[in-house]
Design brief:
Shape: elongated
Number of domains: 2
Radius of gyration: 27 Å
Order of helices and strands: EEHHEEEHEHEHEHEEHHEHHEEEHHHHH
Number of strands: 14
Low-confidence stretches: 2-39, 53-59
Mean pLDDT: 86
Structural class: alpha+beta
Helix content: 40-55%
């Protein structure tokens, strides 16, 4: 839901440093880099000044819209995006305020992202830039014009201008509980003279169900998110938390009512229009490449290898070592997030019992025991942990991806083989 694009921009008049909007052109080339260029910042600042210093006549022409963008191909864009559009129809100023920006070029960005300490920014850009950018990416954009009074529209504009001041524009991003959509929603709620009542019937859903619905065509991303997020997202949440998804908030805006302080009621939505049509061809993950199929093959291979070992009467570690190495590498990520990250829901992940760095050491131990011909008595502990964990998976409050069941069952089959041959090899 967050995004940061640098617009490769240039002035038509290369000799001037202080050019105006008429001198400015934009090349439609976008990269996921850093912050906006200084030239764009100067232009935006000028637009803000014009917008905030309008005459009373110009103030009567303000309108505010919610812009909802369809999901994109990159991971951070998988769930769509929300922004606010403020138009001054008298001065022809048209600005989009965007709470989903971050500086991905900083040296410690990835480290802070893993720790859950990512600071996002409120940025703004001319509406035409916003549309050009999303059109270039092939995303759809729907505009919902809000039924705000001129006083409320002006109030929202001033709130956004105050929020974009350098000392105010940064905030700690929490993608489930404080993201670009929720920030936009909160600003609209602060601007109305009264309160907004969301009229849609409540839907009993968990966050995991909502995420999986969004990722229905991207099986590997769904598997990865299911792997790192724990039991916290398996609790049913109210509609306010469900609004972390742009599409869900957009559907709430459709039916919401403004209850004003004088007791009158009015629909929040004035009009809806499609600005851009989604042209991305989102193909579902082919079944033969899906986690379900891949890990079903792994389980079948684990069973067949056990049968082959049984027939030949000796243990073969060639499958177990890469399996435990992969388990340990995945475990580094799961354990890091569990113990060190501030991201929501990662510290309630029951998979940390099985997915942690210890299997890396165990893989080395398997090789050592096989070469030295000694008994692998640690196999009993490994088997017991997996048996207890599988029994726990059925009753614990966390929901597990079906493919994850196949992974853990594969590990159990191989642990049974290790324990079996350890037991029968001893005098």
């Amino acid at each position: 839901m967050g995004q940061k694009w640098e617009l490769v921009a240039k002035s038509k008049n290369k000799r001037r440093k202080d050019f105006d909007l008429r001198d400015f052109c934009v090349t439609l080339h976008f990269e996921k880099l850093g912050t906006m260029t200084n030239y764009i910042r100067h232009i935006i600042s000028a637009l803000f000044c014009v917008l905030s210093l309008t005459s009373s006549k110009a103030q009567d022409s303000l309108s505010v819209s919610v812009l909802t963008c369809t999901p994109g191909a990159d991971l951070y864009a998988k769930f769509g995006h929300t922004a606010l559009r403020v138009q001054n129809h008298t001065t022809q100023n048209d600005v989009v305020f965007n709470y989903g920006c971050f500086d991905g070029s900083s040296n410690d960005f990835m480290w802070k992202f893993l720790l859950g300490q990512t600071d996002y920014l409120l940025e703004a850009e001319p509406y035409d830039f916003f549309v050009a950018r999303y059109g270039h990416m092939g995303n759809g954009v729907t505009e919902q014009t809000l039924n705000l009074s001129q006083e409320e529209s002006l109030h929202l504009a001033y709130l956004l201008l105050e929020n974009i001041r350098p000392e105010n524009q940064q905030y700690r991003y929490m993608w489930l509980y404080d993201n670009c959509t929720e920030r936009a929603r909160d600003m609209v709620e602060r601007a109305v003279n009264g309160k907004i009542v969301y009229e849609r019937a409540p839907q009993e859903k968990t966050i995991r169900q909502m995420l999986n619905q969004c990722l229905a065509q991207d099986a590997w991303t769904e598997f990865g998110i299911d792997m790192i997020l724990g039991a916290e997202i398996d609790q049913e949440v109210d509609k306010r938390i469900q609004m972390f998804l742009p599409a869900f908030y957009s559907s709430e805006v459709d039916e919401a009512q403004i209850e004003r302080q004088d007791g009158s009621k009015a629909p929040l939505l004035a009009a809806t229009q499609e600005i851009l049509t989604d042209t991305n061809e989102n193909q579902p993950t082919p079944f033969l490449l899906s986690p379900l199929f891949v890990f079903a093959i792994l389980l079948a291979a684990s069973v067949l290898l056990f049968l082959l070992e049984w027939r030949k009467g000796h243990y073969m570690p060639w499958l177990d070592v890469p399996m435990h190495i992969a388990q340990g590498i995945a475990g580094i990520i799961v354990a890091f997030l569990f113990f060190l990250s501030e991201h929501p829901a990662v510290d309630s992940n029951w998979l940390v019992v099985v997915f942690n760095p210890l299997p890396l050491l165990y893989a080395g131990w398997l090789v050592y025991c096989h070469k030295k011909g000694i008994y692998n008595k640690l196999s009993y502990i490994n088997m017991a942990v997996l048996i207890i964990f599988i029994a726990t998976m059925a009753v614990c409050p966390q929901s597990f991806n079906v493919a994850m069941w196949l992974v853990v069952l594969s590990l159990l089959v191989r642990s049974l083989s290790q324990a079996h041959f350890t037991y029968h090899a001893q005098p």
